[in-house]
Specification:
The protein is largely without helices or strands. The protein has one domain (1-48). It has strands at 26-28, 34-35, 52-53. Strand 1 and strand 2 form a beta hairpin.
């Protein structure tokens, strides 16, 4: 995931940027929307944070855990 602050490419599963420490966004598994790290409910579809996953850049832009 690219850091929204410094554009550093972080490995999958990171909660914070490994270069600058900025919290990384979370992706809602239900709708794919990128939410700020502190959101407990998806701002687009209302799904609870337990459904969030980290973005997986190796799956063609899909969030981790979703079938291709």
């Amino acid at each position: 995931m690219l850091c929204p602050n410094c554009q550093f490419k972080n490995p999958q599963g990171m909660n914070f940027c490994g270069k600058c420490g900025t919290p990384l966004p979370k992706v809602c598994q239900a709708c794919g929307f990128e939410n700020p790290p502190d959101f407990r409910i998806c701002g687009k579809c209302g799904e609870h944070k337990d459904s969030y996953s980290r973005f997986d850049p190796g799956r063609n832009g899909r969030s981790a855990g979703l079938p291709p």
